[in-house]
Design a protein that fits this description.
The complex is a heterodimer. By secondary structure, chain A is α/β, with parallel strands linked by helices. Helix content of chain A is about 65%, strand content about 10%. Chain A is built from 24 helices and 10 strands. Helix content of chain B is about 65%, strand content about 10%. Chain B contains 21 helices and 10 strands. The N and C termini of chain B lie far apart (about 80 Å). Classes of the chains: A alpha/beta, B alpha/beta.
Amino acid sequence: MSSAERRSPAGLSGGAGEKASATKKASATTRADATDTNPAASETERLYQPRLDRVVLARLLGYARPYRGRIAGAILLLLLVAGLELLFPLLTRRAIDTYITGRDLHGLGVLSLFYLGLLVVIFALRYLQLVLTQATGQRITTDLRDSLFAHIQGLDQAWFEKNPVGRIMTRLTGDVEALNDLFTSGLVSIFGDVVTLFGIAGVLFWLNPRLALVALTVVPLLLTVTLLFRARVRTAYALIRVRIAAINAYLQESIAGVSLVQLFHREEIHEAKFAGLNAAHRDAFLKSVFYYSVYFPVVELLESLALALILWYGGIVSLRGALTLGSLVAFIQYAERFFRPIRDLSERYNILQGAMASSERIFDLLDTKPEIAATAPRDRDGSRGAWPAPAVEFQNVRFSYVSGEEVLKGLSFAVRRGESVALVGQTGAGKTTVSTLLSRFRDVDDGAVLVDGRDVRDWDIPSLRRRVALVPQEAFLWTGDIRLNVALRAGRPEAMVAEAIRLTGLETLAGRFAAVPGNDHAGDGRESDGSRPDGVGERGSQLSSGERQLVSIARALAADPPILVLDEATSNVDTETEQRIRAALRELLRGRTSLVIAHRLSTIRFVNRILVLHHGLLVEDGTHDELLRRGGIYARYYELEYRGQEAAP
Amino acid sequence: MPLFPHLGNLRPYLVRYRGQVALGYLFVVLQSGSALTIPWLLKRGVDGIQRGAPPSFLLQTAATILAISAFSGVFLFLKRWVLIGASRLVEYDLRQDFFAHLQRLSLSFYGRHRTGDLMARATNDLNAVRDVVGPGLMYGMTTLTTVAVSLVLMLRIDPVLAAATLVPFPLMAVVVSRFAQEVHRRSVKVQDQYGVLSNAAQENIAGIRVVQGYCQEEAEGEHFARENRTYMNRSLDLIRFRALFQGSIAFLLGGGSLLLLWIGGIRVIHGGVTLGELVAFTAYLSQLTWPFIAVGWVISLVQRGEAAMQRIQRIRDEVPEIHSGPGTLLDPVRGEIRFEGVSFRYGTGAEVLHAIDLVVPAGTVLAITGRTGCGKSTLLNLLPRLYDPSAGRVLLDGIDLRELDLGGLRQAIGVVPQEPFLFSDTLSENIRFGRADAPCEDVLRAAHRAQLDDDLAGFQQGIETRVGERGVTLSGGQRQRAALARALLKDPPVLLLDDPLSSVDKSTEEALLRTLRDVAAGRTVIIVAHRVSTVRTADRIVVLDAGRIAETGTHDELIAAGGLYAELARRQALAEELKESDVLG
């Protein structure tokens, strides 16, 4: 095997060279795939140009500050290991010059013991250094991930609507991992490389300055070749990424549109087109294979050049008696060690660049401030406004998601304490927006939303949301058991949770989906803490939609809010479940101020009053009978939307 | 049972490139063989220096080293270029075959497999397999050759030193394979936890409204931090073990050098070998290091590749459920359609169509309506054989569809699907979908008939406008009309329209209905629609309810009957009225 492909033991950890680049390749394509299948994400991702930015670097180092002791320790250990490793060629030199040439068996034995001792010491130090460095990297990224997550938690709904889940996930996973690379393979290792380079150069000059000069003439050549190679390969990989993205996009489209391809009998045309993309990708890859194929032999040739120079010039010097044979052998060994860090250096630079791009993206996210601040400037739990203020009041509220397209056009209404009010109206009338504004997921453009007589913008958000609970139209469930989904993680008093589960008739279901050991995970089944409760499945997939609604209702019951906003689900459920939901809703509405966005006739029957929204305005207000008698919009709407339900058993 | 049964499926590909593989192996031998003579030259040089040979001798030795290195370099280049290159060719073929296979699988297959999963197989799994063919094969060959050649060369110099040099390697092989298993086990645990962590974050983000609405931010943060901590601890487990692994390898290699220095030193002192020979062995030792480390790596590549190939093969083994028949259609196709006792279920699910009997005379327009989920679209999908009925049969011009040539059948049928899917290409290419060679005038005429003229005028590049991925830059109505143009251009004797006007406004609907009346002349048309306004002019209307034909007749007959259709019409009229009522006026 060629010496260029030869790896030092440290090379196994991911230094330069084929293996490292092979894995890099793999991860590069995977990462590219991940983003490229998500067009929304990839467009913005590409805009980031990796560069070394002092500000970003300084901020990154800020995260390392709590661990500066460990980092200093890791660097110290690394310096020690790198320094001690320089001793081996010197030991060889001594063995040859003193003991072998001097035929001293005992001396050779003692030196061998010393050599062994050094190996053991380095083994221990290297172990400590690797663990310390990588563990510190892990700790830093764990911290960063925690704070990133916490930050994301506090962002407002408008932001979440703009940013697809996939992109947020990339920040939390891929980008944070890239920073781990920065700390482990990047920053700390560079110290080791520098020490090795200067150390070897120093020793070589100490051994014989002229031979050192001759041997090191190869270094600029190697450096040039490596940098040229890296530049080429980088461009080649950029091209590969573009082409694999094209392949993936086409593949995805062809899978999604497969019925059309078959209907229009286009299989062959599509194959031909795919062949074009596939070939373009192959050719781009062959280009990079070419660069690698050229690079390795050239590096090997340069190393042989160094060897030849040392043998020739060193031999001449040695013949003149100015250099011992042992020194010559040491020279050869040092030369080999000298090449490694140079080859690694450009690899490290790549890692550094990748990490910079990732950290810029992460810091951009961390710098995003929520538009709706969590705490209100004014009193937290002081005056509740003028008594007896209505529990909920909309005063001339105007609101638009997209400027120019007003959803609410001056909506005004009030809900008294203890009153149940239903909001009805066609899709797009602004019903759901009412709930969004009331929980302050968004702020009004004009007018005011008042809860207990106080503008929601003056409320401390947690207090507001504890007072006003929302049951969304689409019940969202976590992977876990029913109890978790009712109590949520912040926890509620056990008694209340049990009561909520009882009132919604979920006891048997809760029993069935109690935490069961996860069994569908890859691996050997011997997981240390493998009892992950899979419970209701991802997004509650193990439950019917009716059951999910019941859980959502139980959740609100357990939270026991004074004011309730209920956005009824529209999905069809069987009669029995429907009855259970009806009973649970009656329980939920009892004794509470409630605002129901009604899709079911049954709920309309529970409420005291009905508000009819039409084109963002309140058009009718009254009891069911009053409104029916009036024969206006509600009457027609009722006929259309609800009458059919009566026919159902 | 072969060791890697699934990778065996690669054989045809390797056979296809056997010339390259054989050539590659030749280059491996030439390269390894020549490179392994360099230590011998080193020995010659060192011995020469020791005996005081003239500088010319040293120059000659040095020059020979350089020359051999250049020679070996050429083959190093060739071996990599040929073998890694071959793996890229195999990758190309594999991907192409996979794609072609996917194109031919039936829709029921796509009902069972998610796009993301198929994508993963076509990308990550394919890469893993390619790595077996490329680096796996290359390093496998190189290691075997290097070990064999260097063994012969070393034995020729000195058996004792050869033994001393080789001692660490079996140990290393054991360490590598043992450690590799453990490292794998621990990385699986890390990966599992990574999945849990990602899932926790993903769920939290997806359910952020509930999280914030119920003030769960802090508790969720703590939960995430706990999972994050577990992830970190598992990573630390892996890190510690890997550090031990790396340290051991370094230790063993250092131990090898030490053993060589010590035993070699003794042998030199006793005069068994020369100092030059000792130096040569040092060089062999370092040349053997990477091949042995590569063994462990190649093994993991092959294991990964085997699992990946299994996943790919599982798809490759899927057989298309819809097969072409031997028969050909009448020329020209008359277009009489007949459903005889047709029932249908998706896979093993509940039956969605129950014994449908229906005749559509050639050249007539049939409309199908009914509630969402009543089986309208399913019925349509049986005609171009996207699915086959689970009982009964469908006939075109009196021939069972299963008897017909699939391509010919689909050629005779134009479909405007419910989801107007467009490919990310130009509008004209999308319209040309069914007739790739259609001249530009025809494309423009089809666009015109589909009421696309005004839209085209609004696009800077007109018909050559690229529509974004899946046509996202177009409105729903525009996409529907483009899909209609696509079907019209094909000029098929049978035209199937699956709710084609649901996203167009009232005036466009009227214009399109006029077009459809023109188009319908001389064709059999089946149109599925919710809107009464779309179906009312059909020759006959069928109302489906829960997979059965509930009513059939003309618009007037059905209205007069006062059944399901009449109720539908009444409610739609009401909704229309409500939508248009202007409260302020």
